[in-house]
UniProtKB/TrEMBL annotation:
InterPro entries: ATG101
PANTHER family the record matches: AUTOPHAGY-RELATED PROTEIN 101
Chain intervals with Low complexity compositional bias: 209-231
Swiss-Prot/TrEMBL GO biological process terms: autophagosome assembly
Keyword Ribosomal protein applies: no
Pfam families registered for this protein in UniProt: ATG101
Family of the protein in this entry: Belongs to the ATG101 family.
GO molecular function: protein kinase binding
Disordered as annotated region, ranges: 96-116, 193-246
Name of protein: Autophagy-related protein 101
Presence of the UniProt keyword Ribonucleoprotein in the record: no
Species of origin: Corynascus novoguineensis
Cellular component terms per the entry's GO annotation: Atg1/ULK1 kinase complex; phagophore assembly site
Amino acid sequence: MDQRGAPEFILEAFADPSSVRDVVRGILHTIFFLRYFSTVLPHTRDVLGLELPYVRDAEIETLIDQRVAGLVRQLETERHQSNTLTDNRGGFGLALLGGGGGASPSSSGGGGGRGQITIQFLEKRRRKTWYAMRGDDEVPWESWTIKVTVADPRTEGERAKVRRASETTLHNTIMKTVTLANSHKDHIPPITTSDSNPFPYQIHVGGVQQSSGHQHRQQQQQQQQQQQQQQKEAAVKGWATRMGIY
């Protein structure tokens, strides 16, 4: 299977800033549990009332913690940028759900964010060349992308709604993950090694483009960032509406 033929599965995560780390970690561990072809003792952890599988492997745990920390930092940066842009646009409500200063939910500006994190499972293939030097290429055979939406509720009522929406989304995502993993197996490469885990893996966090040193370029990028932030805010509020939060 070439890289273009590797299936990619898209999952959703919805949480508030206090629970997003545990939610994303729980989904990642579930994916690894379903695609970790080694004997492991069953372990579980509670995430929003769900008992999710947990892979007790130091390398996997460390990588997940590092990448999730990077995602959380990115989301925190977006939240601060969102609040700054909201202030600059005239002081509409800072909360994503509901609004400060009497603003309606549709006009409340920031406080939320969106990001994504991707797992790739790889297989090693012998590189074919016409000259003597050879090596191995690591080719993806499957990837999972989690699209993360963070809401920042400001009232007890909003927090309760976000909590219910987070629990529902997590339950649906875990069920979808199990269904996809069990119904898509034909593409899994044959296991040809006795290593504890036969397939390498990578975890990538969606990044933010860096600006250049030229002033005109910076201005263009700032405008683009503002437009992108507005689009993200609209997408987050649309998600909240679909989940019945307001």
